[in-house]
Write a structure and sequence with these properties.
Layout: H1 4-37, H2 44-80, H3 95-100, H4 108-119
Helix pairs in contact: 1-2
Length: about 130
């Protein structure tokens, strides 16, 4: 089945998401630099708030970095013609799953197997 039109749209979405993440990350890094540049004496509570903001921004920045890496890998797979194939079983990943998780590496069944093995076969929490 030819999925090139869907893949073109997913490539566009991945590229757009990547650009947005990089712009946001740059803004966050600017905020971090501003926090670190503050040389004034601060009250204890103010200092704690500053450290908390620093921690939150660092975490957000790391999360964005990881997502950019996943997007880059998906774009590379698109270029190599391996995009949309499960890395475990080699079957096509349904387009609906790719739309929901455009940088996914596995079909739903293999991803669930992987998660079960990580959890040690503990049951999935119910909502």
């Amino acid at each position: 089945m030819d999925r090139s039109a869907e893949f073109d749209e997913l490539r566009r979405q991945l590229t757009e998401r990547r650009r947005g993440l990089l712009e946001t990350r740059e803004s966050q890094q600017g905020e971090l630099r501003a926090l670190h540049a503050e040389d004034r004496q601060v009250e204890y509570e103010e200092g704690a708030q500053s450290r908390l903001a620093d921690d939150v921004l660092t975490t957000l920045s790391e999360s964005a970095r990881r997502e950019v890496m996943q997007i880059d890998a998906a774009l590379r797979r698109l270029g190599e013609g391996a995009y949309g194939e499960c890395i475990e079983c080699g079957q096509e990943i349904p387009i609906e799953r790719l739309r929901a998780l455009p940088f996914t590496l596995r079909c739903e069944e293999d991803e669930e197997d992987r998660e079960r093995s990580i959890r040690g076969n503990a049951p999935r929490p119910s909502l």
